[in-house]
Structure prediction request, 252 residues.
Amino acid sequence: AAGMTPLSAPPPRPEAVSPPSPRALSAEAGLDSFARISEITRNIYRQGSVKSVLFTAVNETGRHWNASRCIAVLCTPGKPPSIALEYCAPGIKPSDVRDMVKLIGTLQPLVVVHGPLTIAEGAASPFASGLRPFAESMGIDSLMAMPLVEGEEHIGLMVLAQVGAPRNWRDADITLVKTVAEQVVQAVANARLRSLVKNLAVTEEKSGLLKRTSYLDMLLSEVKRTLQQHSTVSVVLMHFGKPQELLRQMGE
Prediction:
């Protein structure tokens, strides 16, 4: 009828939405973790030196797992580490080097025999007696030790440690840290190979010309040829960089 305002339809009743199941939440968290591990791996492989590979690994891994400490060392069993880097969460003091070396020296033989090692509460662990002095001085209550293995050779160790409270390490944590450790080993091998290739390169990095050592055999060959042919040989000496020092040594 004229002048009457039509009634609007009642709003639809909201449908009940069931909360996600614990399994769904766990699966979603797992996908997020795998995505984060892929990102960590990419960042590790971008590094050009062994030190930067380990530096990136401990920082990225320590932050992702909210660990108090994350340590990565390269060492063969029975020998002191050749390189060791540590991530410390905010408010955590860096470890004493001597304690770190002793901790690694005690942990590595254990992981060589038993594989990845987790200690949820140091006092209750069968391995605690040997670790307790160093763990207490570093404030460690729980840890995970993951071997770095290249082929059949143990080349180092990664350690995640929790300070101030015990921590139970899940099977998923162990699997993902093992994945990171495997990628660290590959990245270290690649960095060493790049360094070797760079050292063996026959060109000089700044100029792109052959290195000085490459010219010595050439020079001796040319001198021998000129002596045989009774001709002359010319030598040009070039110095790249530090021109003022060259002028000071050789004069105008």
Notes: The longest helix spans residues 171-200. Residues 16 and 130 are 56 Å apart (CA to CA).
